[in-house]
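Intended use. Records such as the Neutral ceramidase entry shown here are meant for training and evaluating sequence-to-structure methods. They are not intended to support clinical decisions.
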Amino acid sequence: MTGAGYHLVPSRESEETCVSMVDEEKTTNFDKHAVPSSAASSDDDDTDIPQARRTPWLKLKAILLIALVASTTIAACCIYRNGVKPASIWTNRPINPHRPTSTLSSDSNVIFGLGIGDVTGPIVEVNMMGYASLPQTNTGLHIRLRSRAFIVGSQEKESSNYFRARLAARFKSFIPTADGSANRWLFINSDICMGDTAVRKAVVDQLRQKYPGVYGERNVAFVGTHSHAGPGGFMQSLLPTLTSKGVILQNFDAIVQGTVKAAVQAHEDYTSRQNRVASGESATRLSYGKTRLEDAHIQRSRYAYEQNSQEERDLYNDEDQDHDFGLLKFEDLPQSQQGTSAATPAGFLSWYAVHGTSLYENNTLTSGDNKGLAALLYESAQQPEMLPGQNGFVAGFSQALVGDTSPNTKGAWCDDGSACEYKHSTCDNGKGKERVQTCHGRGPAWGLDEYLPVSPTGGYDWASNEIIARKQVDAARSIMDRPATATFSHADDYESMTHLTGPIKSVKMNVDMSQYTVYRPDGSRVKTCPAALGYGFAGGTTDGPGAFDFVQGSNKTDHHNPFWDLVKGFIKNPSQEQIECQAPKAVLLDIGEIHKPYDWGPSIVEVQILRVGRLFILIVPGEFTTMAGRRLKKVVGEAVKKAGLVDEGEEPIVQVSGPASTYGHYVTTEEEYSVQRYEGASTLFGPHTLEAYMDVFSRRLVPALKEGARDLPVGPQKAFDITKAWKFKTGVVYDNPPIGHSFGDVLEQPLLSYPIPNSNFSHPTSLFNGQPTTSSTSNITVTFVAANPRNNLRLEGTYFEIQRFNTDTGTWLVERTDGHHSTTMRWTRTNELHGSSKIEVGWSVEPWTKQGLYRIVYYGDRKTPFTGKIQSFEATSSEFYVV
């Protein structure tokens, strides 16, 4: 394909922009040092020449000053554009024009830094993000949500864009093309449903202020794990925040704060490691490997997948899912052991395609779902002595080709046990009508009744979530246990590791996907459309069925209830041009053309590639289906080889990662789009969306990775102030204890003792067999008179502790917090008018629990009536034995 209408490198307009900045600078400086207008006018009068000659030094100084400012600015601008270190402008160090500053030489060490931060927003009274289900308002906490940061960069001194960073920091609307270091990138994997433009911008703004010239627009990637069990209300577009009653600033701020904390920690870790390498104390190693994980996901839209040609499906052995589990391994090597197998693993970042929908729509406990749980389990097993969130080892479980995947591996079934209808995923409602509401996906623990007693949801999904999480943990462990070699050479190598060295680079740009033109090889051209959602979108999926009489697979030729045509008319009827552009989609919500009070959906999306050696990570703003992702990876791999970015005979490793940055919903193939199941109906920009992304990544981003390539233009930007978004969710009014009680009173005490469950497991480090370990009958529950948890999110802290008495020291030690998988906290409003509530702390005793005397301590924060002051309190249960 060709990219007509777009230059592969910035045009002369970019250089003219650079010059225009200089012209503005000259104008400003001239005005600042100008002589009075009377003197200026006298220069044109011959009679004033003697007067002028009497002050030649003053005029000469002014001219020299202007010339100095102009020449310096022009030099800085042009040098920046060509990627030379700005430090060379101000120091006596010579500039080597033959030395690229945007990439590393292939024999350079790669430096990395890892960090983790708490992004747990309000855990009660907020609608949860993902299922768009009004009844799913959170009531408590399963595990805390984390952002995990991974920095990859150069051992060498990196080019600084300090000057540009200060401009960007001062003038928020001005984002230079080279904002951030070219040869360092930051990948953030966050336990939230998806990346978002406003969240990413807020994070980048803070990092730019703290580290000018280091982190910026082009080298920060923000990816969500796609958990459907976290609080909502953090997104820039209006539509995804409707169920949460608009933006929840408390959640938005928590995500930003925790993510920045993770990035800062990673930066400090990076700097420390860089110093150790520079001093010869140690070295680093990055390596990539992959394995196949076949039984942790299932194709949830097989009918749509089958619309792709048999010839193309045969290329992948007709496997309807991408079973690859890829992993980037970070290791430290002591100086005396460099090149040996005695390396210390510091963490990893992995990719695997499985939806974050293990926990069903009726779950109301805040959780990271299977990806967040997998990270917690691996980190806890790696450093069992550390509390969650305090670990130094960082495990990242990110998404890949997630669009048409499901963790409900037993398939979709009707409530009566019959199979769901194949094309539309419906069941007979008993009244002769086919409906989606009773067609549900079943997870791997379905029917295992022994796990129901410890399920906070009362269903099988709790154990299913753990099974899917542990299967990913097992896959990661199998790769982490391999020795690092350099034998990884082809796409089907599932046994080796490849050592990754430079080059390192990040490229990014914004693209208006509402009107992107793709020129095909045959000379024809196709366009994308303004964003729209089809009727099949409202039909939901087998992971989360839709409402009313909507079904998947509804295109414009299918019959549908005319009532919904009437309803959508009150919002906005699509234009004829939009109807034709989106066909065969039957447009339900024309969100790309609704801009009041602000944009209902995205038009501009953010696309990005992060490179380290042979690994090319495609940061995609949406959920690509299996075949759509395969096509993207193929065309990018071909472009990489054509551009000479890998050695002759080498195969690039192309990894898709999303949903990131802007949430552009789904991306299907044109064939899948034609049947308008949920994924196709949620492909916002029309049937040619995938072609547009393939064009952008292969013809715009990949060439920009070449050595000496000019910086990409930032692309269109749309300013948005999140504080001015719709916000209809009220805050906490006040808290009061029930009459006759005080805050922290224990309403339900624990029993005197609990047995440690019998199990073959003796320690959490042995829990890598893919099976649940919480089938304990020792369930401890303590209930306290509580206050609303929204009063204090206790980021980097905990709402409760489970403490064990240390007989040797006579002190209480913290054994569990609200961040552990075995604990839960559920909050209940007991009297709305009075403002009273209670909290239940639960603990399923694990087989490896230490014997001893225990107690549970609850930390609360009350909002006082009238004054609104937040006051902290704590309460302690009676003591009990675990034996």
